[in-house]
Each structure stands twice: as structure tokens, then as C-alpha cells.
Specification:
With 513 residues, the chain is an all-alpha fold. The chain is built from 22 helices and 4 strands. The chain has a two-stranded antiparallel sheet. Strands 3-4 form a two-stranded antiparallel sheet. Helix 3 packs parallel to helix 14.
């Protein structure tokens, strides 16, 4: 594979050029401090069941507006990285995944702890997360640079088809139900149309309410759907004063030695995590379980999996953190978020004045490099912090919900209000908190709503631009090779979605026969 790609014009850029240009932008006291602070906050939120990196990114996003852009993005990316690892600690210690990402980790992590190897399990999990994240960072740097080259050939028809691919993919990988995933994606698209139409300057679906004429605030929407709905659910459990009993835990270098000795599993699982992370909507949960299944199939002692096998812990944690790097690849190269967390990261970039996609690589290569450095340094900070502060993170599990819930609610309200100084945004946040609570009660996924809301304006703008270019001739989507290829992919995926489950089972059986 070569190391050059050509941007618009005649300039040739190596894959290392973003790192070179971004070096000075990132390596400042404020950006490095934000990486360490964000990683710490992410770890704490990841450890606490029900919190996770998405909540941290949402609550801290308004803070990025008063920071240097690279420092602000470093803060959010570090929360993303730290939160993706923190859930493994609670999964190992109390058999409760702090985040859905750690659901697969408890399969072998908790049995290891029960056998008296709690220190080893925590050390392997945190070390695998950091090293898997660094491997994902390599693919992020190389992959996004080369995809940006491909994206330069994209025009409005290709971008429209690509946004459709992202929306359909989200529905396909929805764990709860394909139909529910499609419905939630469509709901997100509908919400994105509220407010002034940028082409006609008419107001749409504002219901005569002045606060809706500018559209829905993405922060209010996301805080309500995820943070407020989660607090409602935690309140409903009523276990406010029952912290688990946990002994002392410390980091050991046994974990580092174990991970390095299992380098084949590490590389394979990290590659799986990166690849699945780059698919819009797939996410760390699928990555972790897929890597776990592959590791078990390749093991000489598969019967030990589920009983405290170190390979199981390593596979899950390296995959779900490598997934972070993978999810950032389509986000930076195409402006298509890989999951809910990266959709918020994209929103933060837009608020800071940087629009993801090939133009970002052409006009703001230093910013791209600063983001690359922020991601790499966040994983290094993750390894160092877990070595030093694992005992502190375990004590976080002992915090009573009666103290935690009011604090989270207060931060949610303040962060939503601070962005625009609008009380209406608080009402929107509370409304979508109730909507999110009801949707979760009936098994509807929330992430497709956010992805649909973010992709909606991109999808509509490129559809209209395509039709203006062609004079309302829909054949423009067939006459361009890239657009036609993406259209065929979308049709194939849609057909698969609409097939009855019995037919899908027969196809799967035929494939494995």
C-alpha cells in the first residue's frame, strides 16, 4: 500500500502529514490536560452502571465552546476512550457491566474474579483496552486518510446514497428489532426537519412555537433521550442505598505480560473491533461479542471460555476499544457517524466550525492531525491512569444512587441551558427524557434516533442538490458509477431487512451447511 493520496488540486499528502501538522496544535498544556481529565471522567462514568461514555460526551460538549478547539475535542475523545474501558471494571467486580460495551467481558472476567484473580482480570481488561485502542488508532490514521481520497470523488448523489446506507445499516444491526430500528431512524429523520427550511425559508412542523423555529437543539435532544431517561429508569429501580461490597483491587503488570504473550488474539480482536466499528451502527457491543466468539473458535481450550479464560477478557476489551478508532474513520472521512457517541463528536466539531468530510482533510489537515494525536494520547493516558487509580475507580461503585442521581440531573440541566441560555431547551430535554423512558420501556433503541437526526439534514441537502443539478431527473443516481453502486448495496440491504425471519434462517443454514 502506498503512503500518498491526492487532494483537490495538485498537492500530494502522505499519511503522516496530518500527524506532522497536528503535532503543534495538540501538544499544548491545555490539550494534554484535557486528554487526562477526559479519560479520568470517562473511566468514572464507565464504572458506574447506567452511565457510560455517551453521557459524559453529552454533558461536557458545551464546555468545548470555551476551550481551544483541539483541547475541546481532546476532552470529548478521551471521555469516549475512557468510558469504553471503564465498564469492564464493574463487570468484573460485581457482574454488572458499567456500559453495554462490557457485557461480553463479564462472561470470563467475573469468573476470574470469583477464582481469586480479580487483580489479574482488571489488569488484563484495562491493558487490552489501551493496546486495542492504539491499534484502532493506527487504522484510524491510515484508513481515514485513504477514505478521504475516495470521498473526493463524491458529489451530492454519492453523499445522498451514502447517508441512506448509514441509516439502513443502523436498522440492520439493531439488537432489539430491525423494524423498531427502522422506525426510530425514521423518527430521527422526522425530528431533523423541524424548523426553518434552508431552501424555501419556510418554517416546518414548528407547531406555532417560537422555540421550534430554529429547529431542535441536538444537546437538549440527546441529553433528554439518554441521560434523563436513564435517571428515570434508575429512580424506578428504587435501590438507592445498596452499594455492593467490594474488596481492595490493584493493577498488576501480569496483565501487560498476558496481553503481549497473546499478541495473535490481540491483533485479531482489535482488527475485528476496528472493522465493525467503522460500520455505521454496529458499535462496540457487536464487536466485543464477535471477537469473543472468534477467540473461542480459535482457542485450543474452548471449554474454558465462560469459566474465567484470559483470552476471553482480552478479546472483548481489545475489540470494544479498537471499535472507537474504527467508528471515527467514517466520521472524519465522510461525515457519517459510526455510532451515537461519534454523532455527538461530529456535532461538537460542527459547533466549533469544522465540518467532517474530505474538505476537512483538504482545508484543515492540522485539525485532523490534532484529533489523531488526541485519540492516540487518550489511550496512553488510559493505560497510565488505570495503573495508578484502579482502587479509586472501584470505590466509585460504592457511591449511593441517592447522591448520584440528583448530581447527574443537575449537570444535565445546567449543560443544556448553558449552550444557548434557553429555558425552552430545558423543556425539550425533559420532554425527550420522557419519550426516551417510554421507548426504552417498550424495547425501542435510541441510538438510531440520534443518527437519523444527525444524518437527516445531510440526506435532505444532498437529495435536493442532486435533483437541482439533474433538473429533477432521478436517473442521476443511476448514471454515476459510485452512486449506482451504493444504490445497489442499499437495495440488497433493504431486501434482506424485509425478508421474513424463516427465509433468513434458511439462508443462514445454507451458508453454514
Amino acid at each position: 500500500m502506498g503512503t500518498n493520496f491526492v487532494v483537490r488540486g495538485s498537492a500530494t499528502v502522505t499519511v503522516f502529514e496530518p500527524l506532522i501538522q497536528g503535532f503543534g496544535l495538540y501538544f499544548t498544556p491545555s490539550a494534554i490536560l484535557m486528554s487526562v481529565l477526559g479519560c479520568f471522567i470517562g473511566l468514572v462514568l464507565g464504572v458506574i452502571p447506567g452511565m457510560g461514555p455517551l453521557l459524559g460526551i453529552i454533558l461536557l460538549m458545551p464546555l468545548t465552546l470555551v476551550l481551544d478547539p483541539i483541547a475541546g475535542m481532546a476532552l470529548l475523545i478521551a471521555v469516549f476512550v475512557g468510558g469504553s474501558c471503564g465498564g469492564a471494571i464493574s463487570a468484573i467486580l460485581v457482574r454488572i457491566p458499567g456500559t453495554p460495551l462490557a457485557a461480553a467481558t463479564l462472561l470470563d472476567g467475573y469468573p476470574m474474579a470469583q477464582r481469586g484473580k480479580v487483580n489479574e482480570a482488571v489488569s488484563i481488561a484495562t491493558t487490552a483496552s489501551a493496546t486495542g485502542g492504539l491499534i484502532g488508532g493506527f487504522f484510524l490514521i491510515v484508513g481515514s486518510v485513504y477514505l478521504a481520497k475516495v470521498a473526493l470523488k463524491f458529489a451530492a448523489p454519492e453523499y445522498f446514497m451514502l447517508t441512506l446506507t448509514g441509516l439502513i445499516s443502523i436498522a440492520v444491526v439493531s439488537h432489539e428489532s430491525t423494524l423498531k430500528g427502522l422506525l426510530m431512524g425514521a423518527f430521527g429523520l422526522l425530528l431533523s426537519t423541524v424548523g426553518m427550511d434552508s431552501n424555501t425559508l419556510f418554517y416546518r412542523f414548528d407547531l406555532g412555537i417560537d422555540g421550534l423555529q430554529a429547529g431542535l437543539n441536538v444537546v437538549a435532544l440527546v441529553v433528554g433521550l439518554f441521560a434523563i431517561s436513564e435517571m428515570f429508569i434508575q429512580i424506578g429501580k428504587k435501590d438507592y442505598n445498596k452499594p455492593p461490597k467490594i474488596g481492595k483491587v490493584r493493577f498488576t503488570f501480569y496483565g501487560l505480560n498476558s496481553v503481549l504473550n497473546r499478541w495473535g488474539n490481540l491483533l485479531r480482536s482489535s482488527a475485528i473491533g476496528t472493522f465493525l466499528g467503522a460500520l455505521p451502527g454496529a458499535g462496540g457491543v457487536i464487536s466485543a461479542f464477535t471477537a469473543y466468539a472468534v477467540a473461542r473458535s480459535q482457542s485450543n481450550t474452548p471449554e474454558n471460555f465462560g469459566k474465567g479464560d484470559e483470552d476471553g477478557v482480552l478479546a472483548c476489551e481489545s475489540a470494544n476499544n479498537a471499535c472507537c478508532g474504527g467508528a471515527l474513520v467514517p466520521s472524519l472521512a465522510f461525515g457519517i457517524p459510526g455510532d451515537a457517541s461519534t454523532s455527538i463528536l461530529l456535532g461538537a466539531m460542527v459547533l466549533l466550525g469544522y465540518f467532517p468530510g474530505p474538505d476537512l482533510f483538504e482545508n484543515n489537515l492540522g485539525v485532523v492531525g490534532g484529533i489523531f494525536w488526541a485519540y492516540l494520547m487518550a489511550n496512553i493516558a488510559l493505560f497510565v491512569l488505570t495503573m495508578v487509580t484502579v482502587p479509586l475507580f472501584t470505590s466509585v461503585l460504592k457511591v449511593k444512587k441517592s447522591y448520584l442521581i440528583p448530581i447527574i440531573l443537575m449537570i444535565s440541566v445546567l449543560s443544556t441551558f448553558a449552550l444557548q441560555g434557553s429555558f425552552f431547551d430545558i423543556y425539550v430535554m425533559l420532554f425527550f427524557g420522557l419519550v426516551g423512558y417510554l421507548l426504552r420501556r417498550y424495547g425501542f433503541p435510541l441510538s438510531p434516533i440520534v443518527i437519523g437526526f444527525v444524518l437527516g439534514p445531510i440526506c435532505e441537502r444532498n437529495l435536493r442538490t442532486s435533483l437541482v443539478i439533474s433538473g429533477d431527473d432521478w436517473s442521476i443516481f443511476l448514471s454515476r458509477p459510485l452512486s449506482a453502486t451504493l444504490l445497489v448495496i442499499n437495495i440488497v440491504v433493504l431486501v434482506w431487512v424485509l425478508l421474513p425471519p424463516s427465509v433468513k434462517q434458511k439462508i443462514k443454514f445454507w451458508k453454514t451447511a
